[in-house]
UniProtKB/TrEMBL annotation:
Residues 2-209 form the Porphobilinogen deaminase N-terminal domain. This is Porphobilinogen deaminase. Binds 1 dipyrromethane group covalently. Tetrapolymerization of the monopyrrole PBG into the hydroxymethylbilane pre-uroporphyrinogen in several discrete steps. InterPro entries: HemC, Porphobilin_deaminase_cofac_BS, Porphobilin_deaminase_N, Porphobilinogen_deaminase_C, Porphobilinogen_deaminase_C_sf. It comes from Panacagrimonas perspica. It catalyses: 4 porphobilinogen + H2O = hydroxymethylbilane + 4 NH4(+). Gene3D superfamilies: Periplasmic binding protein-like II, Porphobilinogen deaminase, C-terminal domain.
Length: 306
């Protein structure tokens, strides 16, 4: 028996069920069950995530369940996972990545560049807000919280002319046809870990780790090592406008990153390439360069010491 802790949002349940089905296919005699739970982040969906306390909110209850032996593993969107795991827990597998790009979704406009002057755009993240404002200072950008379905409903009810979501979440939920334009990763740099499902387990639980080994994707692991090293050096929170995306081809890696003021008035971008095996060190180096070139001031003005 293997117990999977998961949030109860439709996307989280899809991802947990996907992991369950793959484990079941690899180990036909194993019983795999879902243990759904509500996290503090889900309860606070109506308030701003940044004021509520950030990323850990979506994973804490799942981690508690593993530490108390009510579950053996937790399935996460890596985008929602903080830089550090609690004592006794560790990330044990990363699945093959879905499309990492942000999606432009609109009922009226075919692409971001078609938005008229002053159009209303909804987004749930400071990163998207910053990138968007830097690109198009004329837009009226509003905070859009809630599950993917809730956000699409707000668009359909005409609260916004367009919204930005992750392509991965839309595709997984069978809503890929809502994507009008997939935004280029160089220009519109994705969030650390966007599109990758990660699995956390107890560090000493070798049985669970062995059972999960079949799901592990080394390209995703290489990507995540670079992106998470970058994120860690930059303070490691999702409450800051930080973007980082690595592309891996054979033994090379290229990491793009951005730190921006939420209003887009200042944006620092840079990129670095090197050997894939050096990903984590490249991530740290790129973070140092960003900090030296203005990111330290941007983060400092948001109360983050990096
Ligand atoms: N913060 C919510 C969240 N966490 C992960 C995804 C998308 C799926 C993924 O990145 O794997 C989403 C929804 C969104 O940003 O549109």
């Amino acid at each position: 028996m293997l117990r999977i802790a998961t949030r109860e949002s439709p996307l989280a349940l899809w991802q947990a069920e996907h992991v369950r089905a793959r484990l079941q296919a690899a180990h036909p005699d194993l019983e795999v069950t879902l243990v759904p739970m509500t996290t503090r982040g889900d309860q606070l969906l109506s308030t701003s995530l940044s004021t509520a306390g950030g990323k850990g909110l979506f994973v804490k209850e799942l981690e508690q369940a593993m530490l108390e032996d009510r579950a053996d593993l937790a399935v996460h969107s890596m985008k929602d996972v903080p830089a550090h795991q609690p004592e006794g827990l560790t990330l044990v597998a990363f699945l093959e990545g879905e499309d990492p790009r942000d999606a432009f979704v609109s009922n009226r406009h075919a692409q971001l560049a078609d938005l008229p002057q002053g159009a209303r755009v909804g987004t749930a993240s400071l990163r998207r807000q910053s990138l968007l404002a830097a690109l198009r200072p004329d837009l009226q950008i509003g905070m859009l919280r809630g599950n993917v379905g809730t956000r699409l409903r707000k668009l359909d009810e005409n609260e916004f002319d367009a919204i930005l979501l992750a392509c991965a979440g839309l595709r997984r939920l069978g809503l890929g046809d809502r994507i009008r334009e997939a935004l280029d990763v160089q220009r519109f740099v994705p969030a650390i870990g966007q599109g990758v499902i990660g699995i956390e387990a107890r560090a000493d639980d070798t049985r669970t780790r062995d059972l999960l080994a079949v799901l592990h994707d080394t390209t995703s692991a290489t990507r995540l090592a670079a992106e998470r090293a970058l994120n860690e050096r930059l303070g490691g929170a999702c409450t800051v406008p930080v973007a980082g995306h690595a592309t891996v081809s054979s033994d090379r890696i290229r990491l793009c990153a951005m730190v921006g003021a939420p209003d887009g008035s200042r944006v620092v971008r840079d990129e670095i390439s090197g050997a894939a095996a050096e990903g984590a060190s490249l991530g740290t180096q790129l973070a140092e360069r960003l900090l030296a070139n203005g990111a330290r001031e941007i983060l400092g003005s948001l109360g983050i010491k990096a």
